[in-house]
Amino acid sequence: MDNDVESARHSLVHLLRSGHTPAEAAVELGYCLSWAYKWRGRFDEAGWDGLKSQSRVPRHQPSHTSEKTKRKVLETRAELEEEAKKPNALSYVGAGAIRGRMLERCLKTIPSISTIEKVLREAGVTKPRRTQTQTIAYPRIQIECPHQLTQMDNVPHYLSGGTLVNCFNAIDVVSRYPGGEQYERKSTNEVLDFCLKTFQSIGISEYTQMDNESSFNGGRTHPYVIGRVPRLMLLVNTELIYSPFYHPESNAFVERFHQDYSQNVWEKVQMQNLPHVQKTSTRFFGRYRLSRHHSELNGQSPASLHFASPPRFLPTDFVLPNPLPITEGKIHFMRAVSKDQTIPVFNVNWSAGVAQPGQGVWATLFITLRGARLCIYDQAPDVSPRQCFANHPFPLSEPVLPLSERFQKPATRWLQHLFNRAAKHSTLSSRLFG
Fold it and tell me: Which of 96, 112, 371, 383 is deepest in the core (most CB within 10 A)?
């Protein structure tokens, strides 16, 4: 097609040279008059080369990435890859880490995450992301701010001699601020110690999520048992969420952090003993908290985002009660409805009402001073309206204690103060609660 077009332009020049006017030549070749004038002018300017078709790409491309920027992206990537080989360095080489390093150096031109990813793809240094399929859609809380949800989990590792080390990790879902502890054992005592240290380092989130291991929930034998870990969560006023069974995707943020922790700590150094693990882990957590490799944080470090608003920390003088009481509050469960239309909660199979087999549901155990009830819903608590599939009384073998004032959130304290005033003044009480 281009050859035919250029041949017509050559014919135009020959006709003009033989004495034809531009109008006559245009008619003979089947083109308009402006076409004849255009290509006559091109020939006058550049000769026969002026008749060649030119690129239609705009000369000025605002979104075009300069060769200098591409080179700087690839140089930074190579630099991070070299650093990642060192035992005490972080192993992040993706677009977020590259942009974070460029921000640290205050470069004149800082490309976006998408631009860096495009440069890496064009250079052939990226790996395709694996897609995950999810068969059951579980209701979930929509988290938008730091201190709303902390996910906790345990990942086992082995020393060179075969000794097991239980590595507990926690991470704030929004700020990506992590914490972790390492133990020889994985009993409830270690879980409680890990929770306390997490509440003192990361803070007490509105929700805390973990899986269904026996050390997390009080065992899998006796029915209706509220173990020590959920009791601790109730005591400090964080709403515990138990993930679905056999569904690590629901705990995806801490699962992904396990990979980072393993890659940066266990795959780089041959661990000798538990103190060696703890020392190396502490260094990793410190670097990770200050790193700006997270593309989702837009150049911020986990620490800067996490502490932009103050967390609610566990008091340093806190002493764990023994025994731990049951305190008023809520415990949540993400569950799949079984074929017999039941869900398991604290070693009891509860009817899910009209929920369908295979459906993901959200169950909440409401614990009040008057007793407890288990309610099963189609949606998480932050969705309105939502359908209640079933409502069951939950037997308790001991009295419920009110939430301590030291663990009440600021808004909760204000409401409690208002309620106390209302109780003293019957007129105000009738107006507010009548």
Answer: 96
